[in-house]
Write a structure and sequence with these properties.
With 231 residues, the chain is mostly beta strands. The chain has a domain at 32-189: Sandwich (Jelly Rolls), CATH 2.60.120.260. Helices cover 10% and strands 38% of the residues. It is built from 1 helix and 14 strands. The protein has one helix at 5-27; strands at residues 32-33, 48-49, 60-61, 64-66, 79-89, 95-106, 113-121, 126-132, 147-154, 159-169, 174-184, 188-189, 195-198, 211-213. The model is unreliable at 22-26, 214-219 and 221-231 (pLDDT under 50). The chain binds calcium ion. Calcium ion (CA) binds next to loops.
């Protein structure tokens, strides 16, 4: 049976649109998430609470974390609250995008927290920088309607490996955080070193122990390369 002319043209148009849509989606690069358990669905998995903080303190509350550890100091706790070790390469000239939800439990002004990224360059030099230091005045007090704080950073050409994400308390205030995301396109996110065994858990002073772990060392660029760069 012969199709009516308009129907034939309609099918041709649909086919064209489908092919266009497929080719468009094939060229779109999606960002890769760097932070593990950023929404605290798995409680504190993959997060390390700073050892300077009272170990009895639990920052978790209803699937979010407090950024206000207890302190006997008059000024409150200052320093790293939580961090996550990372093993991300392919970062040279790459822009990373940070996003996290914050809300405040008590009114505060100025800067309460800052978010720090640490990386090695291809000479093995360590660098760290603040990707975002939000003004607490502008942060929501409503847990149901938190403020989404964002920040971006473009790594320099010599950047080699992103190794840590850290939230540091730098001033007065009581903030909560959730939905922490750091993402970039074209990067390689690898597993982080995990301690798999310690030879002795305790012993007198001087006892030597062996810690077994998968360790990544800073990359040192070779002085020459046998592979010619492609134009
Ligand atoms: Ca959550």
């Amino acid at each position: 049976m012969r199709m009516p002319h308009f129907q034939n043209r309609f099918i041709t148009l649909c086919t064209f649109l489908l092919v266009f849509a497929i080719s468009f989606s094939a060229t779109a690069v999606s960002a890769t998430e760097i932070i593990r358990n950023g929404d605290f669905t798995s409680d504190l998995s993959d997060w390390i609470v700073d050892p300077d903080i009272d170990p009895a303190w639990n920052p978790l509350s209803s699937g979010a974390i407090s950024l206000n550890p207890p302190s006997t100091d008059y000024n409150g706790y200052l320093g790293t609250v939580v961090h996550q070790n990372l093993n991300v390469t392919g970062i040279a000239n790459v822009q990373v995008q940070l996003s996290m939800d914050l809300w405040k439990m008590t009114a505060s002004s100025g800067n309460t927290v800052t978010v720090i990224l640490s990386y090695f360059d291809n000479e093995g030099q360590f660098h760290d920088f603040d990707i975002v230091t939000p003004l607490s005045d502008n942060i929501s007090s409503d847990p149901q309607n938190p403020t989404t704080v964002t920040g971006t950073f473009t790594f320099p050409a010599e950047a080699y490996k992103l190794v840590a994400f850290e939230i540091e308390k730098i001033g007065y205030g009581n903030l909560m955080a959730d939905n922490i995301s750091l993402a970039a396109e074209g990067i390689t996110v690898d597993i982080v070193p995990l301690i798999s065994g310690i030879s002795a858990g305790e012993g007198p002073y001087g006892t030597s122990i062996t810690i077994t772990a998968r360790i990544s060392v800073p990359f040192r660029a070779p002085s020459s390369s046998a592979i010619a760069p492609t134009a």
